[in-house]
Write a structure and sequence with these properties.
By secondary structure, this protein is an alpha/beta fold. It contains 19 helices and 29 strands.
Length: 722
């Protein structure tokens, strides 16, 4: 090639043409360094036919590429996925490419670091700390800070051992290969239903063809062990497998189950990795050495050269939808990647989304069902608690029948879980003297009190202030009153009601890392916790055999706000949290506290009639022309200048094209009218499936100009209406 079309990492620009210097070899997918003005940016060589229409200039007028980086090229299927994602979600291709090049340090050549290992020599001067460090380190090798952590001493103690000759330096590559999983390490004992399901999935892997599956199994049915057999087949063939999980806190239980089955832990990918860990993982994936990757939605865009299986676990989870940057849904993009890679895709869930169920009904996805729990465990008994008939005591939130049930569980030595999907102590704090309410200065949202950290926090922008003693408005001291419950307030009530019980709060504030999640799991499994108080973080993925009682504190909470998916999401959350009860030999019970016992979703939960609930909800969507029967797109206008945001939103609304089968609603101030200091307006576009929605929006917005200070974001298939 004498010239190359390069997609550089600048979302404001499209592909640019460059001259390939004599002696340099590039091909589509090559990762290169290209000049742009005085800067040098990373980019990827692309096929010219993918981005036609670029103005052609002579080779002699093109600037030359600077270098080809020592990194595996971006594979062809991933390049096609990047193009599709950018086109479908109306995102700049460079913004999607950036997700594939998620570790810039991985694009550099091989690196080495100095680690240290014991020499067997004993220092002349031994102290208690040196003795402790050497005993705990044993024959381990690592960086100074890692050895200090293992030895339970300071970095200075380790450096002293290096100077004394007790530890010696070793130069090691940062790209050390990961241990490979063994497909025959510990095959499970599957039930007949699981074995039949696993056989079908294994056959799909062997076929080396695109095949989307819905693995629909009740909580505790062994979906993970079932798709592990398909994974074993992919590993045995020398191919790669990807498992997407919705929460980082779920990673630790998954890693343990994987290690028991395959002998090693899989390669991990999520935002909590250190830079060196991301580099090693990225290069192992790109080289094909990483056989199994488990990670958050961003793991979907890693450059797998030989992908043989994709699993989306808890595929119904709304957190698979990215709400900033590129507004993609990992569940849907995973299916498209499976098509590009010609490999099976498994969507595993006990409560599949209506969109997924619809794909089964029209024959696009194959459904595999696991209708009963593994090993004879029974589904828990569901009991509805009408709070109008059984009100909690004044100032409390747990109804008397649930209090009695917790007494019984604790008396038997069993564990209980109380679920409330609201972090912190109270969602609103006000002054009883003057009525002042604490609102975030950057958002249209109340500040949430967190008593564990003695802070008021905004859960939208992260703004935090210490909890004051006096009202900022009237200066009255000790006048601040918490309104409504959060999990911390429920935990306080638990401590007052059952002072001898050992309680743990499980939220993203307390389980913010894999290590914290692992510690929590170990404590529950070891019987060190009697009562768990948690948010949606504990509704899925955890298996605690001694947990027999679940109490849903406020089942009506998720039904507020008029969200399109409010009923479905409430149903999914409560079914999932109910599934934590009675997973072992002991039977389980679930108490659902509600003030709306006649609501369709509550009646479905108590009766266990999920089929009727889904049929009714699906018919409501069909009647409203809502997804999956129609299309939605949100257009969000934001600016630090309120007038500017409103003007551009009005201009976009006035310029809306008249298209048969498409309606435009708005603009209107967003429910979160101010977010992170930016004023926001929304328009909602509703269209039939026949309308080429992306093409219409692309032309519509392409004819409107706005200042750089104003942002206009398009969210195709929105999940958030805030």
């Amino acid at each position: 090639m004498s010239r190359a079309r390069v997609l550089i990492l600048n979302a404001a620009l499209g592909p640019l043409d460059y001259r390939v210097p004599y002696g340099m070899t590039v091909a589509p997918g090559s990762i290169v360094v290209a000049p742009l003005g005085p800067r040098q940016l990373v980019g990827v060589v692309w096929e010219e036919e993918s981005f036609p229409g670029t103005e052609t200039v002579g080779d002699n007028r093109l600037r030359p590429l600077v270098a080809v980086l020592d990194a595996p090229p971006i594979p062809t299927p991933l390049r096609r996925l990047i193009e599709w994602t950018a086109d479908y979600y109306l995102a700049p291709p460079a913004a999607v490419l950036r997700m594939a090049l998620a570790s810039m340090s991985a694009l550099e050549g091989a690196r080495t670091v100095i680690e240290y290992r014991p020499t067997g020599l004993t220092p002349e001067r031994m102290t208690d700390q040196r003795t402790q460090a050497l005993d705990r380190i044993g024959m381990r090798q690592g960086l100074i800070r890692e050895l200090a952590a293992i030895g339970g001493v300071s970095d200075a103690v380790i450096r002293g051992l290096v100077k004394s000759g007790a530890l010696e330096p070793v130069e090691v590559s940062t790209d050390t290969p990961f241990p490979e999983p063994m497909p025959d390490f510990a095959p499970p004992d599957l039930s007949d239903k699981q074995a039949a399901a696993a056989h079908r999935l294994v056959e799909a892997v062997k076929a080396h063809a695109f095949a989307p599956f819905l693995l629909d199994g009740v909580t505790g049915s062994g979906k993970t062990e079932t798709y592990f057999e398909a994974m074993a087949e992919a590993i045995g063939e020398g191919r790669q497998a990807l498992v997407l999980l919705p929460e980082i806190a779920l990673t630790e239980p998954f890693l343990e189950r994987f290690e028991k089955r395959f002998g090693v832990v899989p390669v991990n990918w999520h935002s909590g990795l250190r830079q060196s860990e991301r580099r090693r993982a990225w290069r192992a994936v790109a080289s094909g050495q990483a056989k199994v990757v488990v990670g958050a939605r961003s793991a979907l865009f890693l450059p797998y050269p030989n992908l043989g299986l994709i699993v989306v676990d808890e595929a119904h989870e709304a957190s698979f939808k990215q709400e900033d940057g590129v507004h993609y849904h990992a569940r849907d993009v995973a299916v498209v990647r499976g098509l590009m890679e010609q490999c099976p895709v498994i969507l595993a869930s006990a409560t599949p989304a209506i969109e997924t169920r619809h794909q089964v009904e029209i024959g696009r996805y194959e459904e595999i069902r696991l209708p009963s729990r593994y090993g004879g465990a029974e589904m828990p008994e569901i009991i509805g608690l009408n709070l109008l008939e059984h009100p909690p005591e004044r100032g409390r939130w747990i109804a008397p029948p649930l209090v009695k049930a917790i007494d019984e569980a604790l008396a038997k030595g069993e564990q209980a879980l109380l679920f409330l999907n609201r972090r912190g102590y109270a969602p609103l704090t006000l002054c009883r003297h003057c009525g002042y309410r604490f609102q975030c200065p950057n958002c249209t949202a109340w500040m949430v009190e967190h008593r564990l950290t003695h802070r008021l926090a905004c859960h939208h922008c992260g703004h935090v202030i210490p909890t004051p003693r006096a009202c900022p408005d009237c200066k009255e001291e000790d006048s601040l009153v918490p309104c409504g419950p959060g999990v911390e307030r429920i935990a306080d009530e638990v401590a007052a009601q059952w002072p001898q019980a050992r309680t743990a709060i499980a939220t993203s504030d307390t389980l913010w890392s894999q290590a914290k999640a692992a510690e929590f799991v170990k404590s529950v499994e070891g019987g060190d916790i009697d009562i768990i108080v948690g948010t949606q973080l504990v509704t899925k993925g955890y298996h605690f055999p001694n947990l027999t009682l679940v109490g849903v504190i406020d089942a009506d909470l998720g039904l507020e706000g008029g969200d399109l998916r409010a009923s479905e999401r409430t149903f999914q959350q409560i079914v999932q949290v109910s599934g934590r009860a009675g997973r072992g030999e002991k039977p389980g019970r679930v108490f659902i506290q509600t003030r709306m016992p006649e609501a369709g979703v509550i009646k479905a939960l108590v009766s266990g009639d999920s089929a009727r609930f889904y049929a009714t909800e699906t018919e409501n969507r069909r009647h409203a022309g809502a997804p999956p029967f129609g299309r939605f797109a949100a257009i969000i206008v934001s600016s630090e200048d309120a007038h500017e945001a409103a003007e551009i939103a009005r201009l976009i609304g006035k310029s809306a094209p008249h298209v048969d089968g498409m309606d435009v609603y708005g603009p209107a101030p967003a429910p979160l009218a101010v977010l992170r200091g930016r004023h926001r307006h929304r328009l909602l576009v509703q269209a039939t499936r026949q309308v080429e929605l992306q093409a219409v929006i692309r032309e519509w917005l392409g004819n409107i100009a706005w200042k750089p200070s104003t942002r206009v974001a398009v969210d195709i298939d929105p999940y958030s209406f805030m």
